[in-house]
Amino acid sequence: MKAFRRGLWAIAAVVALVLQLAVLNWLSPVVGLLAPLVPRTFAVAAGAPRPIENIDITDSGPGTLLSATTMPTLDRGYLGADIRAARIFYRSTDGDSNKFTAVSGSVFLPVVRPPDGGWPVVALGHGTVGINNDCGPSSSENLDGMAPSVRWLVEHGYAVAVTDYQGLGSKGIHPYLDARTAGRNMIDSVRALRHTFPGAISDRWAALGHSQGGAAAWAADEQAAIYGVGLHLVGAVAMAPAADVAGIVDKAVEGRLTPDQPLTLQAIVDSMSRTHPELIRREDFSTPAGRAHWDKLSACSGLDLYLRGFYANELTPKDLAPQSQQAADQLRALLQAWALPQRPLSAPLSVWYGGADTFVDPHWTARAIRAACKLGGIISIEYEPTKGHEDFDLMTQANWMIDRFAGKPAQNDCGNYDAFPS
């Protein structure tokens, strides 16, 4: 998987390359979306985490803080002593069942005195890191490569909330690519941040995400008006969003998946087999060869994490594909039920996508944008025909977000969307 060419997350790739270049080069051509861009580094001994003092654990519904502890490895390593960091558990809501869930994540803010009204907030939505309970970025020493981005945002005057998403870092099932659940997790991470550091955090916030996180940021924008009551969303940035991936099923049936998509489909099926075991079975989407490596392909820890590329090389696309039309139809219907858009936007949205994306087909994204434009709202669109999944300029998107905090009006490209073909 290529490193970002530019932007804040490119810094993380450079750091990782210095330490683990051989491993990254081995994995990158074959692992695709399921692998973190940067090989995860696990926390080393740096003192035991301690409870954060003076937190607000009042039961206030979604976003209620359940616990907050220090993150000593981040404090001493990737972030430094001038940033306050906490690993948190908080209450959120499942997007399908509307039942309360316990979600993990991490929150950050400057150690200096906050401005009047508190620090404005950026909620970061991470891309695919896996689907198991031990895959959450908050359990990684470098936040799965996001630590430099967090540091940049904090240094520029923002508090930051990074949700792990439901089922990653906490008990429960992770509904992979269910953007509505992930969007609610983002909204509630902002509430939990405010409870972790009472009085220091503003109610003004923005959502910023890539890939799975791009869809989460988009969904958070949709959900903010009805679910994010009490907070003020200024805008959301969705980069290469996995907004509607139902088309991956037909591509698999027709044998047209890109080399980067079979493991994405495997992760979708694996998650769906857990969320809807009565409807989706692994064996309906794999050959015996695929099933032999199935659990190893989902690993987020141990040796299997670093051997996923090896296991994937032993498989063909047919080994991880629907084995019947009935199975394909069932999976497609479930993905369509999760697809964005689902309701009108609550705040301006910026969408970046590339025409050479081999993970999320550009015409899938274009279809979602057109549908969102019909629902109303302000959407700033940046389409780059020659760019791939990770080839965005994060600084451009960050500047769009900064302008929303400054109260500047966002450009609405919905009326001229023919200028942004898929």
Task: Describe the fold and architecture.
A 9-stranded mixed sheet has the order 1-2-3-5-4-6-7-8-9, sandwiched between helices. The chain is α/β, with parallel strands linked by helices and 422 residues long. The longest helix is centred in the N-terminal third of the chain and has 24 residues, at 8-31. It has 2 domains: 65-244 and 339-419, Alpha/Beta hydrolase fold, catalytic domain (Rossmann fold, 3-Layer(aba) Sandwich), CATH 3.40.50; 246-336. Strand 6 (201-210), helix 5 (212-227) and strand 7 (232-239) form a beta-alpha-beta unit. Mean pLDDT is 87; it is low at 1-45. The chain is built from 13 helices and 9 strands.
Summary?
By secondary structure, the chain is an alpha/beta fold. The chain has 13 helices and nine strands.
Write the layout of secondary structure elements.
Layout: H1 8-31, E1 65-70, H2 72-76, E2 83-93, E3 100-110, E4 119-125, H3 147-155, E5 159-163, H4 179-196, E6 201-210, H5 212-227, E7 232-239, H6 247-253, H7 262-275, H8 288-292, H9 294-297, H10 303-313, H11 325-338, E8 349-354, H12 362-375, E9 379-384, H13 394-405
Helix pairs in contact: 1-3, 1-10, 4-5, 6-11
